[in-house]
């Protein structure tokens, strides 16, 4: 950044401004160098000022385009919930939505209902909750699985089936969700949202125009884009394709390491006593089935998205023939900062709503990420 004005604009773009201005802005988290990160920020701000590429918040509220037929990105909202447990609940938001008798269901929460309220079928929208049941075996027919499920994905249609299945085997549903959302967007297009993203406005106006992929700046005290809410045209986008490829390479490399460890143990088995062999196998099994939260963020989550999108923008942003993308400022999807998530009390409706609204500008915000981080609490 070359001036105080640019630095101030960059901090605002990533949420470190106003009521949150005392937060330390961490540098060089996902970039190879501070110089590269400065280039990322300058390019994002430049595109934002030009009202293309990286999206200005005003673009999110342009009321000019609302015809159902003009959307580049399909009017489908995808959620993913794996593992069979109940979705996280946010009782302090219940007065914001119309609750019904389904709120005890495992696939119900306030955030999902907020998206349904702002995106009704009458306006051409569909809302899908993906579970393991939507991913069918290669030999199954759609009718043999569940005729009520319009959206299914056969395993042989998945670009990263092996990585997805490995994540499920590890019971790491955060990683499995990171993988699955890319395959879903690649196949069907639409909007993907985490189940802890609360919707406060219709996305009609974000879906029109030339954009073929969009996401938003995070609010984590650094230069970061968040994969908890993103959208893509049907048939994928170069960024989605590259994310799929890099995740495939990462898991293939990790699986190769695991296979090598198993080969070594197999070779040693005839030389070790049973107790030592069992201990070695247990150690190998534990190490191969654990991905830390940082591993997830870096290799399948926001870290991966940030590096790819920013480098893609720097390389292709001025190319009119490239598939256009939008990166919205944090105030559009992620106005609430992640380091305050523990202050959202589940028992105090008024305090929680006041805290959220203190960070939201009604003219800009379309959704707010609550940072539930359920993927970090998986057992």
TrEMBL record:
<dbReference type="Pfam" id="PF04488">
    <property type="entry name" value="Gly_transf_sug"/>
</dbReference>
<dbReference type="InterPro" id="IPR029044">
    <property type="entry name" value="Nucleotide-diphossugar_trans"/>
</dbReference>
<dbReference type="GO" id="GO:0016020">
    <property type="term" value="C:membrane"/>
</dbReference>
<keyword id="KW-0328">Glycosyltransferase</keyword>
<keyword id="KW-0808">Transferase</keyword>
<dbReference type="GO" id="GO:0051999">
    <property type="term" value="P:mannosyl-inositol phosphorylceramide biosynthetic process"/>
</dbReference>
<dbReference type="InterPro" id="IPR051706">
    <property type="entry name" value="Glycosyltransferase_domain"/>
</dbReference>
<protein>
    <submittedName>
        <fullName>Glycosyltransferase (Family 32)</fullName>
        <ecNumber>2.4.1.-</ecNumber>
    </submittedName>
</protein>
<dbReference type="InterPro" id="IPR007577">
    <property type="entry name" value="GlycoTrfase_DXD_sugar-bd_CS"/>
</dbReference>
<dbReference type="GO" id="GO:0000030">
    <property type="term" value="F:mannosyltransferase activity"/>
</dbReference>
